[in-house]
UniProtKB/TrEMBL annotation, chain A:
Statement: the UniProt record of this protein carries the keyword ATP-binding: no
Keyword Cell cycle: no
One Pfam family in the UniProt entry: Proton_antipo_M
PANTHER family with a match to the protein in the record: NADH-UBIQUINONE OXIDOREDUCTASE CHAIN 5
Domain NADH:quinone oxidoreductase/Mrp antiporter transmembrane positions: 140-426
Keywords: Membrane, Transmembrane, Transmembrane helix
Residues spanning the membrane: 30-53, 91-109, 121-139, 145-163, 184-200, 212-232, 253-271, 283-304, 311-329, 335-357, 378-396, 416-437, 458-479, 515-533, 617-637
Subcellular location, record wording: Endomembrane system; Membrane
Record-linked InterPro entries: NADHpl_OxRdtase_5_subgr (IPR018393), ND/Mrp_TM (IPR001750), NU5C-like (IPR003945), Proton_antipo_N (IPR001516)
Gene3D superfamilies the UniProt entry points to: 1.20.5.2700
The organism's place on the tree of life at top rank: Bacteria
Membrane topology summary: Multi-pass membrane protein
Protein name: NADH-quinone oxidoreductase subunit L
UniProtKB/TrEMBL annotation, chain B:
Membrane-spanning segments: 16-34, 46-63, 69-93
Organism, as annotated: Sphingobacterium faecale
Cellular compartment(s): Cell membrane; Membrane
UniProt entry tagged with the keyword Transmembrane: yes
Function per UniProt: NDH-1 shuttles electrons from NADH, via FMN and iron-sulfur (Fe-S) centers, to quinones in the respiratory chain. The immediate electron acceptor for the enzyme in this species is believed to be a menaquinone. Couples the redox reaction to proton translocation (for every two electrons transferred, four hydrogen ions are translocated across the cytoplasmic membrane), and thus conserves the redox energy in a proton gradient.
Pfam families, sorted: Oxidored_q2 (PF00420)
Matches recorded under HAMAP family: NDH1_NuoK (MF_01456)
EC number, as in UniProt: 7.1.1.-
Catalytic EC class: translocase
The protein, known as: NADH-quinone oxidoreductase subunit K
Gene3D superfamilies linked to this entry: 1.10.287.3510
Reactions performed catalytically: a quinone + NADH + 5 H(+)(in) = a quinol + NAD(+) + 4 H(+)(out)
Quaternary organization: NDH-1 is composed of 14 different subunits. Subunits NuoA, H, J, K, L, M, N constitute the membrane sector of the complex.
Molecular function, one GO term: oxidoreductase activity
Automatic annotation (TrEMBL), chain C:
Organism in which the protein naturally occurs: Sphingobacterium paucimobilis HER1398
Role description: NDH-1 shuttles electrons from NADH, via FMN and iron-sulfur (Fe-S) centers, to quinones in the respiratory chain. Couples the redox reaction to proton translocation (for every two electrons transferred, four hydrogen ions are translocated across the cytoplasmic membrane), and thus conserves the redox energy in a proton gradient.
Designated name of the protein: NADH-quinone oxidoreductase subunit J
Keyword Nucleotide-binding among record annotations: no
The reaction(s) this protein catalyses: a quinone + NADH + 5 H(+)(in) = a quinol + NAD(+) + 4 H(+)(out)
Amino acid sequence: MIELIWLIPLLPLIGFVVNGMGRNFLPKRAIGIFGSGVVLVSFILSCMVFGDVLAARNAGQESAFAYNLFDWIRVGSLDISFSFLVDPLSALMLLIITGIGFLIHLYSIGYMSHDVGFGKFFAYLNLFIFFMLLLVLGSNYLIMFIGWEGVGLCSYLLIGFWYKNSSYASAAKKAFVMNRIGDLGFLIAVFAIIATFGSLEFDAVFQQASSFPIGDSTLLLITLLLFVAATGKSAQIPLFTWLPDAMAGPTPVSALIHAATMVTAGIYMIVRSNILFTLSPVTMQIIAAIGVCTALVAAFIAITQNDIKKVLAYSTVSQLGYMFLGLGVGAFTGAFFHVLTHAFFKALLFLGAGSVIHAMSDEQDMRQMGGLKKNLPITYFTMLIGTVAIAGIPPLSGFFSKDEILAHAFVSNPLLWGLGFLGALFTAFYMFRLLYLTFFGEFRGTEHQKGHLHESPVTMLLPLVVLAILAAGGGILNIPEALGGGNWLANFLSPIFAYSNSRVEAIHVDHNTEYILMGASALAALVMAIIAYSTYVKKKRIPGADGQEQGFLYKLSYNKLYVDELYDLLFVRPLNALSKFLYHVVDKAGIDGFVNGVGSFFMSSGRGIRQLQTGHVGFYIFMMVIGVIAILLYGFLNV
Amino acid sequence: MDNLIQNIQGIPLNHYLIFCSVIFAIGIIGVLIRRNVIIIMMSIELMLNSVNLLLAAFSAYRGDASGQVFVFFIMALAAAEVAVGLAIVIMVYRNTKSVDIESLSKLRW
Amino acid sequence: MTIFYFVAFLSIFFALMTIFTKNPVHSVLYLVVTFFTFTVHYILLNAQFLAVVNFIVYMGAIMVLFLFVLMLLNLNKDIEPMKSNVVKVMGAVAGMCMLATFLGAFKVLESSNEFVTGNTDVGLVKNLGKVLFDEFLLPFELSSILLLTAMVGAILLAKKETKEA
């Protein structure tokens, strides 16, 4: 099967080319079927590849397969080939990307059916899948970087999909710029890796790196740069502000790119490079701190947001923060497990939100919703599963992954656990708030919207159901030993962490501690669900209109901690001022002044000399005589 | 004939130069101070002739016929120039009823 | 020897008369005389061919052409508006400056022992013809085209414009 690995990214690329070329004349049905079909085929191939890897793992054989497509850059001692690497980690990522990608393609057929840019949309989605597959399949940092940049581009294109709305277009721009900051980190890190290891192949780099001392300053630099890249792509403090704005794109995009796949690229990259990070404890501490701060801040903001997609967006940022927390405390498996489960339930929630928005005639404000349970039963049920899963209530998937991270955090530093726990409380609260505001109580929208309420078509419901099953059952992948599970995922991924485990003792969590922590968080999540229930269903506390007087904390949360304003003040305005300065003083006055000055100098001197052109022939002759005299004098004096 | 030749023997070349320069300068002055186009053209003829004479003198001095051939060409040129020039003067006169050079002030941007 | 200086004096005198006479017809006549003195100069240089050509072409053809045009335009009266005295003085000064520069550039005021002897045979028709039709054959033929062109041009210019059809 490994020989056909190149087909997996190639198929979406073909889909992109065909859909992109034929977007204006192919019928929508053909575009939808073709666009989804290529991803489905990729998914099937991915399954087969995964089967191979699984078989190899079970047989205890070498489970990493490299497939070299062609030699790409060969300069001096540097040799970069265009090659793919299939190992347990990338095989799992393949499954997520193509599997969820396919479901979202399917969903988009229904969701985007009324949009004029249908073909364009599918072309972009296919292109995104292609780049994402390149990102996870690449066997060296350069291929990964191509994918990394490519998904950033697709994200930009899809956020600005409805580019005629200028605020959407500027959201796309914001996402792109924020990503660029991170990408620069990645690029410099790649250079540093070449300089240090003389190669970009994962194999070679990790092998060399594993012999470095712990705390090596070069590794510190590389890992910090890589982490900067990860903060950009995975929306961590300080570069997280683009992700909530990225909700300007169509909802399937939010689900696919900004929840399930692209934003986890940073985590994938760190998991992939785990040996480098393991050997730089300082970076690990920074990652843990940033992760937990992001988790808390984003959860805090999410509590008061009224836009259903904004809540989910901040929730995504928050969950990504958990993943980074997990990475920071060395729970690579836990972090990756959370990537998996998060991909399931967050895609589910976004698609469910999309279904709601679709039913509500593009209304996104939860204050206008309510009581949709009756009209959208399947959507409600699947959303409920997603909410329970993300809130961390057992036995759904989110419980296992989040608790694994929190348990490791507790062992590493109880303070981290405390903050993470607080974030988990917030998470449970705002998710149930979302659920209650949307599906319970009285309908608060307009009559027109009420008459238009309908359950979504089957192409949209099918992905929801599939994802709901995955979100509910995803936890069995890695049931901890404490609960009698086999830690299947950890065992499956263990070759990836072989180098790390050989250098640093893996964190061991005491079973009793784990029981207590699990109980605490499950209980807390339930308590928060009940508080939310009493607040929003029993007391019917509907968030007021925008201008209403509110407490300080509420305002702080509602206005997203004023981070956008702060960035505006700190970076955008000074940069604007600098640009204006450069434009007005340097460019206009300096360069233009010089260029125009040269022109106007000759113009004005020409205008002056033109006065000599009187038109009088006699004067011309006179001048000629003077000229002859001058020439003769010159010759005479120079002889 | 021989007497004649003997008589001019010993005229310094410098004197030819001075004489021709004077004639040339007179031509220049004529061009500069007159307004009648025809007179100006005549002054130009004067200048041409002074140069012709100088060429002939050099030719005689060097014993080289090329100078005199050039004089011959200059004469052909002068004939052509005068023919065209006078035609232009006639045209100008027909249009402006004047041969005043000051009236020809259209020759500018 | 004195003949040269005498004729040179006459040349300069009539040249001056040419440019200072107000009546254009008189001017032309003075110029004819000037050209005649030039013919004498050519003879003194033993440039017989040039003397003849000068006599025929310049005095006979070109000057007659001038005279003809003057008569044609009826400009024989002294109607020419004169330039202001300032311009005249400036013109004269410029001409003198030119002369001074010439003389300086040619270094003619230094004494030299280079003399022009009029006893060479190069100016004879026979010798000149050999050079002209041997070394300078192509320019000679080209000059015929020049003359033809000038003739056509002159006719075209001087012709009265016919009404556009």
